[in-house]
Design goal:
The chain has 408 residues and is of the alpha/beta class. 29% of the residues lie in helices and 24% in strands. Strands 9-8-7-6-5-2-1-10 form an eight-stranded parallel sheet. A six-stranded antiparallel sheet has the order 11-12-13-18-15-16. The longest helix has 20 residues. It starts with 10 loop residues before the first helix and ends with a helix. The N terminus and C terminus are likely disordered.
């Protein structure tokens, strides 16, 4: 909704907008429809993005330090391999229309930075926009898709986040299709992250265009924002899967606006939803709690499970002290990920039966993933006291008796 702030576009932008509309009409008449063809996104991407913490205050040194910290902390070994620059790295275009980086903040150039990130065994990502300007009024990609895609391939970019500002009403599918096709033409696999904000319900159509698609506007580091975005996933969470994922936006864990238990809920639910797990905090100042949450490999396994089936909300109920709910996700090996989530202001007992979970049997082995504790064989139902604004994250698997019966 950034374009609503515009009073009148500059004349040069107005003329390009008119030209874009003419090209759009011609291509609609041709009926040209392709699809994304890069083989990427078989599992949700994991890494780091600069925006949530640093916004436009980014530079070469910060990105190098972040790459170093991903490796030094062990985050990279857990799968956090993308180092993604968001808005404000670009400054202008040259006489041939190719994008030019800001040499004040990136004096060695983007290719050198990409090489540095790759030298650490990581992947490198950039940001642009499917409009004439980015959201911070840097040069956008609309009508320059081919030049930009060629430059990204030359720089060995692995990931492109493509925003949705300053498009002046030009149809969204056409704009994202142009960049998708340009990326395909380069022959370099580049993960295509569509940031359309969910305005046109991309969960229902964007699989032909991108490897992931934002389902909402931007997250911010508050409990209210987290809940609002989570609720917007309820009707569409099942629509993601290998090759194309719903993206409820980047992680706020570690930025200081929520409590530790709220961050635990945020991280676990994003993991079960099979959201991209893109860290948004300063990796050089992480607290031990932040590391503990982000580096919980058992919860990461929920996100990276081979089955690739996003979790869904089983039900939500009103209790004496507020709302509480249960989310469930199928996992490979006939297992389940279960999250009991207490939104209320007091500790609440949450109970869910195996029948409700559609669990095959009356017994299951249960493990608490944040406690990293086996809870043993539990019969009939799962029932736990869950503190305010907290989650109980469980992995449910067959009992040894059930496994033996199935093997006979």
């Amino acid at each position: 909704f950034f374009f609503l702030m515009i009073r009148r576009p500059p004349r040069s932008t107005q003329s390009r907008s008119s030209a874009a509309s003419d090209v759009y009409k011609r291509q609609v008449l041709l009926g040209c429809v392709l699809s994304l063809d890069n083989g990427l996104g078989q599992k949700p991407p994991m890494g780091w993005n600069s925006w949530n913490k640093f916004a436009c205050e980014i530079n070469e040194t910060l990105i190098q330090q972040t790459a170093n910290r991903l490796v030094e902390t062990g985050l990279a070994a857990l799968g956090y391999v993308y180092v993604n620059l968001d808005d404000c790295w670009q400054l202008s275009r040259d006489i041939n229309g190719y994008i030019v980086e800001d040499n004040n903040t990136f004096p060695s150039g983007i290719k050198a930075l990409s090489d540095y990130v790759h030298s650490k065994g990581l992947k490198f990502g950039l940001y642009s926009d499917a409009g004439f300007l980015t959201c911070q009024k840097r040069p956008g990609g609309l009508m320059y898709e081919r030049q930009d895609a060629q430059k990204y391939a030359e720089w060995e970019v692995d990931y492109l986040k493509y925003d949705n500002c300053y498009a002046f009403g030009i149809p969204v599918k056409w704009r994202y299709e142009r960049m998708r096709n340009a990326l395909n033409e380069t022959g370099r696999p580049i993960f295509f992250s569509m940031c359309e904000w969910g305005f046109k319900d991309p969960a229902h159509w964007a699989r032909e265009y991108g490897n992931s698609w934002r389902t909402t506007g931007d997250i911010n580091d508050t409990w209210a924002s987290f809940l609002d975005i989570l609720d917007r996933q309820v009707e569409i969470s099942h629509l993601g899967g290998p090759g194309g994922w719903n993206d409820p936006d980047m992680l706020e864990v570690g930025n200081g606006g929520m409590t530790t238990s709220e961050y635990e809920a945020h991280f676990a639910l994003w993991a079960l939803l099979k959201s991209p797990l893109l860290i948004g905090c300063d990796l050089t100042t992480m607290t031990e709690d932040t590391k503990r949450i982000l580096m919980n490999e058992e919860i990461i396994e929920l996100n990276q499970d081979d089955l690739g089936k996003p979790g869904v909300r089983l039900w939500q109920r009103q209790g004496e002290h507020g709302l509480y709910e249960v989310w469930v996700g199928e996992l490979s090996g006939n297992e389940l990920g279960v999250i009991m989530f207490n939104r209320g202001e007091e500790t609440t007992q949450i109970t869910v039966s195996y029948e409700e979970l559609k669990w095959n049997g009356q017994h299951a082995n249960v493990r608490d993933l944040y406690a990293r504790q086996d809870l043993g064989l539990i019969a009939g139902e799962l029932s736990f006291d869950v503190p305010s604004h907290s989650v109980k994250v469980l992995r449910v698997s067959q009992s040894h008796k059930q496994k033996s019966a199935r093997s006979l």
